[in-house]
Design a protein that fits this description.
The complex is a heterodimer of chains A (180) and B (216). With 180 residues, chain A is mainly beta. Chain A has a domain of 98 residues. Chain A has a six-stranded parallel beta barrel with strand order 5-6-8-11-9-7. Chain A is globular. The termini of chain A are far apart. In chain B, 29% of the residues lie in helices and 28% in strands. Chain B has seven helices and nine strands, in the order αβαβαβααβαβββαββ. The chains are: A mainly beta (180), B alpha/beta (216). At the A-B interface, β10 and β11 of A face α2, α3 and β3 of B.
């Protein structure tokens, strides 16, 4: 019976400190150290209880499940607003995937994807926009202008009411005339 | 995605919510439209046309107008506004609300998709809405409206999904308020007195399509 205590005790004689659980990424099933470290490097997750007010800049993919107010800029990277995410911000990114709620203008240089139960109240500027059945959207969609991920001046609410009828077409999205 | 998700639809869906499809998209009935093609032609006469859609957001419609026609699209779901007023018991405030509803500058919108919205409005609300739509529409701009001709007590709204320039799918979804009126032609023309009727078609499904143009 005493042998059991000796077996638990470390060889050095020092008491064992409780080890923190290994960081786990949702969707990674097993303890694969290499894969886990790689994922940690590329994906950052802002949890449900986190509230951020101000400017959020980054150069890696980001998933937000918490609350963010202000400005989010992810040049050349993917921003995912998770189902619990609540954003009141101007958003600039390469791609934006919305499963939660966004209030504010969204500018993406590649794609905006509003999934089922996702909600956007604001104007979208992106060459590609996908809105799922069951998603909520109120605002305008402009797929013409080439989106700039990090402009110096965010769009003002007054500017959203102004039509862009005189803007010239840029990028690869050219209007295709309808056969009369 | 799990294997079961890929094999077929979920067996236990959560309770039905407004705005959710009641049937799969592949099963949506279709009907031929004659006015849509003319509406699209009027839109593409402008570079980067501005479109105002008064119905619920439909992803494929946004892609159609945004990617294929190069439109800037304003989605203003007036059906949701009606429901909100019904549920809040504030229907008497709807005309005043609609008068202030549209932030667009006067004479700046190239096309308006009104769908069958007018059928679901009381007379005062319809008048305010028509005035506002006439205001924001650019001279020579077009407005496409659908008007029911049968006395059906319809309790659903309808999403119209563009298949192509000649075909529309329609998908009912729950509403808090049924259709209010079946307008005669002269009532419709009087309602949009600031516009002229460019084309009018009576479809086989008893829907009247009217394409209005704002005099230049």
């Amino acid at each position: 019976m005493w042998k059991r205590d000796e077996a638990v005790r470390p060889a050095s004689g020092q008491p064992t400190a409780p080890q923190p659980p290994a960081p786990s990424i949702p969707g990674t099933p097993g303890p694969r150290p290499d894969a886990s470290q790689h994922m940690e490097k590329d994906i950052v997750n802002i949890g449900k209880s986190v509230v951020i007010k101000g400017e959020l800049n980054g150069s890696e993919d980001l998933t937000i499940e918490g609350h963010v107010e202000g400005t989010i800029q992810l040049r050349d990277h993917v921003l995912t607003i998770g189902p619990n995410g609540r954003i009141k911000a101007q958003v600039f990114a390469k791609s934006v995937i919305v499963l939660g709620e966004v209030t504010g203008n969204v500018t993406a240089s590649d794609k905006v994807d509003i999934r089922d139960n996702g909600s956007v109240d604001g104007d979208i500027i992106s060459p590609r926009v996908a809105i799922a059945e069951g998603a909520h959207f109120r605002g305008s969609v402009d797929m013409q202008r080439k989106a700039t991920p990090a402009p110096s001046q965010p769009k003002t609410p007054q500017a959203t009411a102004q039509p862009q009828g005189q803007s010239s077409t840029q990028g690869s999205q050219q209007p295709q005339p309808v056969r009369a | 995605m799990g294997l079961l998700d890929r094999l077929g639809p979920r067996r236990s869906e959560p309770e039905e919510r407004p705005g959710r499809p009641t049937t799969a998209a592949a099963e949506d009935p279709v009907f031929a439209t004659k006015a849509l093609r003319k509406f699209l032609s009027s839109l593409t006469a402008h570079e980067s046309p501005v479109l105002l859609d008064l119905g619920p957001v439909v992803g494929s419609n946004v892609s159609f107008f945004g990617e294929q026609l190069g439109c800037k699209i304003f989605v203003e779901d007036i059906f949701a506004d009606i429901d909100r007023h019904v549920r809040g018991g504030k229907l008497e405030q709807l005309p005043a609300f609609l008068k202030q509803r549209f932030p667009q500058v006067t004479n700046t919108v190239d096309g308006i998709l009104c769908w069958d919205l007018i059928d679901y409005l009381d007379k005062a609300s319809a008048a305010e809405l028509a005035n506002e739509l006439t205001r924001v529409l650019r001279p020579d701009g077009a407005l496409l409206g659908f008007f029911g001709t049968a006395q059906a007590q319809v309790q659903n709204y309808t999403k119209y999904i563009i298949s192509d320039e000649m075909t529309l799918k329609h998908r009912p979804y729950p509403s808090a308020r049924g259709r209010q009126a079946t307008l005669l032609n002269r009532d419709i023309i009087r309602l949009f007195s600031g516009l002229r009727v460019s084309d009018s078609f009576l479809l086989q499904n008893n829907l009247r399509e009217i394409l209005f143009r704002k005099p230049a």
